[in-house]
Amino acid sequence: MSSSRRATIGDVARRAGVSKATVSLACSGKRPVSEATRQRVFEAAEHLEWTASESARALATSRTATIGLVLARSPEVISTDPFFPRFIAGCESVLAEAGMGLLLSVVATEEDETAVYRRYATGRVDGVILLDVQTEDRRPALMRELGLPAVLLAPSPAAAGLDGADFGNVRDKSEDEGETTAFPVVLAENAPAIRDLVNLLAEAGHRRIAHVSGPLRYVHATERRNAFEAAMLEHGLDPSLVVDGDFTAASGRSCTLDLLDREPRPTAIVYANDVMAIAGLSLARSRGLLIPEQLSLTGFDDSDLAAHLSPGLSSVSTRADEVGATTARTLLGTLAGIAIPVTRVAGPTVIARGSIGPPPDLD
Amino acid sequence: MSSSRRATIGDVARRAGVSKATVSLACSGKRPVSEATRQRVFEAAEHLEWTASESARALATSRTATIGLVLARSPEVISTDPFFPRFIAGCESVLAEAGMGLLLSVVATEEDETAVYRRYATGRVDGVILLDVQTEDRRPALMRELGLPAVLLAPSPAAAGLDGADFGNVRDKSEDEGETTAFPVVLAENAPAIRDLVNLLAEAGHRRIAHVSGPLRYVHATERRNAFEAAMLEHGLDPSLVVDGDFTAASGRSCTLDLLDREPRPTAIVYANDVMAIAGLSLARSRGLLIPEQLSLTGFDDSDLAAHLSPGLSSVSTRADEVGATTARTLLGTLAGIAIPVTRVAGPTVIARGSIGPPPDLD
DNA sequence: CTGAAAGCGCTTACAG
DNA sequence: CTGAAAGCGCTTACAG
Questions:
Q1: Contact between residue B33 and residue B42 where contact means Cβ atoms under 8 Å apart
Q2: A173 touches chain B (CB under 8 A)
Q3: Residues of A in contact with B62 (CB under 8 A)
Q4: Strand runs (DSSP E) across A259-351, as ranges?
């Protein structure tokens, strides 16, 4: 019958015949230890199945080895958006390697969100990742108030406040060191992919191309819409066929309903995400439209479904896992004192599938 | 210029003119404190913006106020399955109220999974939730070895080892207290909903009904398949039209391809999840089949898309958020010493939509 | 009802 | 290269 109590560093020290300091040093490698001692310490640790208590270490070092992530979207979007799980998986791969954990919160209201960050700040996490940056985002200011290190994921330099626009991520001098206190930004640009999509459609001959946007309070949704409009203008096309969706299937359906009733109706629709596009595709088909012969459609996110619909849904791969990994790495760097102001990740890329074709002869 | 250092319980005690013990007791309410003292303590705490450091509390109480959840599915399924995010949101709602956090891990291999649990056991979490129980699940034994409290989510009593079948969750006496060491189980039965689905189809006149299963190493997938077969037999129908999918869109597509090539082909297909059903629906349509006139389809999970396709996809609502809340509550109870062996939650319910109709006149 | 003190299990200057 | 000691910031018996 083994003793049920978990071993402590004291037990290991005793068994190895050394001090607790030596055990700690031998395991962390923070200072050299003679090979013989190291051996004894490791043998003892292994025998006693000892690993340092994370709580004790947290108290001693003021490091929690945990980072925080809060998701503040509607249940519909959270349950449906492939970006979050992939992003999280990407984070995890680098966090796990660094022995760090991810504390996840999903909140329904701004009030809850603030409460969560305040709890995070009571020694629960070392830093946070800020997703879904909004036009007037309260979070950077809150993070500063709470003294929580953070990194921002943004779809454009402007969105991250890097072009002088201020949404809280302003640069200012901290009195003691003269450093900037702006938060590091990971940049995953959305605009180029949207432009590529419009180019593809315009070159196929489409002239009436519509856009179903995401909720415009999110800078990435605004970015996509702006990119759509800019690309349309570049082709000399009317950029005004835009309806505002909210990333849910319901809005994808109703926006498509709206667009299909226009006279003349668009020959192509660029959706701000896959779920809306799939709902739209389904609706169009049920109206008797052939895809892509009578209507071309594109999504965004490259969800698992997109590739396996018939025809396949053209979409945009956001490489959410890579973005997650880079973001986590950037945060770890920040925590280690190596702050990289801006990290640009490989942008999203268009994946053309059967849902795009030439426009019908309408005239 | 406010002092940048975070206030400690000592600062609060000094300012309130009381001992640290009194501050602690006043805030936790674990022992009565005179109203006057209480006032002073609260005033001081508020003024100093003090909240107890979670790390220090963790060390003092051997409680981390954190529970762990590991997701061990393929990227495709994790990014696509609406159950996980909803379940997590449900957990969070009760955890937040209890001041607890959720440590989330997503792993790719069994090896990584084991490593994560071992790290959890080093004072990182107070307990874990075990999802996606498998037929020979290694985790209950591992949790016992690590001394990690756990609760299991299972789709049937048998799946939870409650009918004598042993998958690690055996009952045995702990020497000191004579209690059972089996893990509490939250029961969300899958079988009734599948039976309802088959009933619906059979009563509409279908006789050749097929099933596309999930990966059968998961007991919930097996449950659904078994329930399908049993229901078919109850109606005197051939239960052998089963093909094994794996919950991905790709498998939904290929399994449907397989089924549509059978001679005679099924007039209805019951899929083990929505993603496979949506891929199947899309394929069938592209083959020129009218839905539901020539083929009826049903999913499982009631993803956001299901309700907004055209026609809507009949599905099964699993109330993942309620299940998550109940599971979290059960775990908190266990940690508080109130172990409820089995908690039955309201089972999934069928939601009939346009994708179901009478069978075509084939003969 | 309240205070002084010990203790949770680590890490990290400080001496040697 | 190693040890003795202090300290991280709480909580909780133990006295009074």
A1: no
A2: no
A3: 55
A4: 268-271, 296-298, 315-317, 342-344, 349-351
| Euclidean distance between CA atoms B155 and B175, whole angstroms | 31
B9-52 and B66-189+320-347 have identical folds: no
Say whether domain A66-188+322-332 belongs to CATH 3.90.1010.10: no
CATH superfamily, with its number, for domain B191-318: Response regulator (3.40.50.2300)
CATH 3.40.1210.10 fits B9-52, yes or no: no
In B, minimum Cα distance to A313 occurs at B282
Residue A28: what residue type?
Answer: S
Answer whether B122 touches A (CB < 8 Å). Answer: yes
Q: What homologous superfamily is domain B66-189+320-347 in, according to CATH?
A: Response regulator (3.40.50.2300)
* Lookup result for tokens 């978990």: A6
Q: From first to last of its 363 residues, what are the pLDDT tens digits of chain A?
A: 344 678 999 999 999 999 999 999 999 888 888 888 999 999 999 999 999 999 999 999 999 999 999 999 998 999 999 999 999 999 999 999 999 999 999 998 999 999 999 999 999 999 999 999 998 899 999 999 999 999 999 998 877 776 544 444 444 433 333 334 489 999 999 999 999 999 999 999 999 999 999 999 999 999 999 999 999 999 999 999 999 999 999 999 999 999 999 989 999 999 999 999 999 999 999 999 999 999 999 999 999 999 999 999 999 999 999 999 999 999 999 999 888 889 999 888 999 999 999 999 854
Question: In chain B, where are the structural domains located?
Answer: 9-52, 66-189+320-347, 191-318
Closest Cβ opposite residue A82 in set B59, B79, B279: B79
- Write the pLDDT tens digit of every residue in A212-229: 999 999 999 999 999 999
Could A321 and B62 be called an inter-chain contact, meaning their C-beta atoms sit closer than 8 Å?
no
Per-residue pLDDT at A274 = 98
Residue B37 CB lies within 7 Å of the nucleic strand C: yes
Low pLDDT (below 70) residues in chain B: 1-4, 162-181, 362-363
Q: What angle do CA B218, B220, B222 make, to 5 degrees?
A: 75
Rounded CA-CA distance B171/A65 in Å is: 36
Residues 6 or more apart whose CB falls under 8 angstroms from that of A213 comprise A221, A224, A225, A228, A242, A243, A244, A245, A272
- Scanning B235-274 for CB atoms below 8 A from A yields 248-250, 252-253
